[in-house]
Amino acid sequence: MILVLITNNILAKVLPSLRILTLFLLLMITITILYAAALLVSVVYIQSIGSGIGTIDLIFLSSVLPLKVKRLTKKEKAEFTLTKEHKDILIGLLLGDVFAEKRTPNGNTRIRFDQGIEHEAYLLHLYDLFKGFCASTPITINRQSTPKTGLIYSSNYFATFSLPCFNELHSLFYREGRKIVPLNIAELLTPSGLAYLISDDGTYQKSHNFVKLCTESFIESDVDLLIQVLENKFKLECRKEKRDKGFRIVIKRKSLETLQKLVCPHLHSSMLYKVGL
């Protein structure tokens, strides 16, 4: 009887403490789960960038925590300027895969960079050149090519702020929503620009020892204009080659050495293979 009374007395004192400890543990577990869920939401989100290339499934931020994009004032936007190096490079890139886009007809222009995952080193090189114009670091995008194939393609992407300093480039390269070759491209295109055009849209044909430029997105007269500049300004012998509904430019084998000397000082090391090096 005495033993029972002692046992009951001990339990009466211990059980409330155990209940408090259990509630505390449940509370800590709940907080941990909620924090993990919030963290997951912060690193994975759905976004469309309107590229017209396919459906974007997931975008993974390069940082664990979400980046708060700074909203620039009109005065701050006006203070951004392009160096000659920046402009020369952008001329070549805009002849290639890079896009200048306006969200509204009277708005400012942003520049959009997108490269396949296999060209990550090159994309990071571009980001290093233009990071002063950007709000955030590159992100990785997974795209489904078509619902029929179900194939997923990964690429790296970043974009600049929408800025007045890019408006001139948009005016040069776009007519009625279509990308064009500017009429004054002979004045604009430099060896540096040509190097970045090749980095974006060039391909080296080892079997024939020549370089092709994938210019089929331009109309034929634009391709002819670009060939004229390559031949007259840079002394490169070229021809055009039919590709689907457009034309590609072939820089002939006899001009390969001239081309290499011209662009190699400006090529990123990961892109030397595009001129056979």
> How many individual domains?
2
> How large is the share of residues in beta strands?
15-25%
Query: Uncertain spans, ≥5 residues at pLDDT below 50?
Result: 1-8, 20-24, 33-68
CA radius of gyration is 28 Å
Task: Output the CATH class name of the largest domain.
Answer: Alpha Beta
Extended strand count: 12
Q: Roughly what percent helix? A: 40-55%
Number of helices: 9
Estimated structural class? alpha+beta
Q: What string gives the helices and strands in order?
A: HEEHHEEHEEHEEHHEEHEEH
- What is the first-to-last residue Cα distance? 96 Å
The largest β sheet comes out as: 6 strands, antiparallel
Question: What general outline do the C-alpha atoms trace?
Answer: globular
Classified in CATH, the superfamily of the largest domain is Homing endonucleases
Examine the coordinates and then state which fold CATH places here, giving the name of the CATH topology of the largest domain. Endonuclease I-creI
The order of strands across the largest sheet is 1-2-5-6-4-3
